[in-house]
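Could you help me review a protein record that somebody else here produced? Do not assume that whoever made the record got everything right. The record follows directly below this note.
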Amino acid sequence: MSTSTSPIKNRICGTFMPVRDIERARDWYCKILGISETPEIMSGHLCPLPMQGAGLILDTMPMWGGKEPDGPPTYQSPAFMFATDDIESSYQFMKDNGVELVTGIENGHWFAFRDPDGNLLMVCK
């Protein structure tokens, strides 16, 4: 591999989240993340969410399995984590909102849950 300077930036600017129903996913993520404005759905399959830091883009992924009967493959291991300053309140909030919790609070620092499409995600302190 060459040691020359890469034109690719050392920064993640966004993560694509595979979803089956873009409107349902948008509404669920907005509720869970406290997003009060309703983000626009672009090209019928993309919905960039207004986030702090790296972006999160909901996508039915028509080119990557979204046209198949079961939709695009879901994340079976967390690809990223959502941040919190209060892990206990975050866990209770998810529980109160009927989110599928996969773990309890582990080591006082994190828990895992699934979105409505079955993607495995984490909240970490």
